[in-house]
Design brief:
Helix content is 42%, strand content 13%. With 231 residues, the protein is of the alpha/beta class. It has a single domain, classed as 3-Layer(aba) Sandwich (Uracil-DNA Glycosylase, subunit E), CATH 3.40.470.
């Protein structure tokens, strides 16, 4: 059996376990668990914050308007979601799409770590503030660090962390679309040039819920998107 087949089977076993997960109260209100989807051999892994209503209904990540924009951004760099893997920090939808709580992040973090450990991507592209702060272990908000590659170790795997704005941010503030397109344009070169076996520094474990970072003066930040934890 090929390594890819072994990884695919391990990811499916993880998915089966996740579908019965009751680690936190989110399990009581979900329609379905959104495990993640894509190529188990992907060199590029996207990590968002949590499922929304469309994802909770379908069980697939990023299928709403933000997902359509993500597809367009991928197409703009000659890629599709079949060539990447897409996951979230939380696997169940928080009620009303509220911010994740510390105990929910703690409950789900191990699942994301296992996914990263199995897929072993070269580049992890975090979408928005929560995912970026969790994986980087740093306090800076997405408006300050987007488009800046950072070598890290996550779940013992050396990866190149590449934070970008959440696609939903561009739906609320259209001026951000250009920034997203510019950041996405760098992804093919980063994936091609990143060394998956290279040494990466250990990063501290993020404790609690990351707080939304304030946008710097002169940025295109919008209060509505800040409330969504996109910045």
């Amino acid at each position: 059996m090929s390594d890819a087949a072994v990884r695919a089977q391990a990811l499916e076993r993880l998915a089966e376990h996740l579908r019965g997960c009751t680690r936190c109260p989110l399990s009581e209100g979900r329609t379905t668990v959104v495990v993640g989807a894509g190529d188990p051999d992907a060199d590029l892994l996207f990590v968002g914050e949590a499922p929304g209503a469309n994802e909770d209904r379908t069980g697939l990540p990023f299928v709403g308007q933000a997902g359509k924009l993500l597809d367009e951004l991928l197409a703009g760099i000659g890629m599709s979601r079949e060539q990447v893997f897409i996951a979230n920090v939380l696997k169940c939808r928080p009620p009303g799409n509220r911010d994740p709580r510390p105990e929910e992040i703690d409950s789900c973090r191990g699942y994301l770590e296992e996914q990263v450990g199995l897929i072993r991507p070269r580049v992890v592209c975090t979408l928005g503030n929560f995912a970026t702060k969790l994986l980087s272990g740093r306090p800076e908000g997405i408006s300050k660090v987007h488009g800046q590659p950072l070598p890290i170790a996550f779940a013992g795997v050396p990866v190149l962390l590449y934070p970008v704005y959440h696609p939903a941010a561009a739906l609320y503030t259209r001026a951000m679309l250009g920034s997203l397109q510019e950041d996405f344009a760098r992804l093919p070169a980063l994936v091609a040039g990143a060394d998956p076996g290279g040494a990466a520094p250990d990063v501290p474990e993020a404790a609690g819920v990351p707080t939304a970072g304030a946008a710097p003066a002169g940025s295109a930040a919008d209060p509505a998107t800040e409330q969504l934890g996109l910045f």
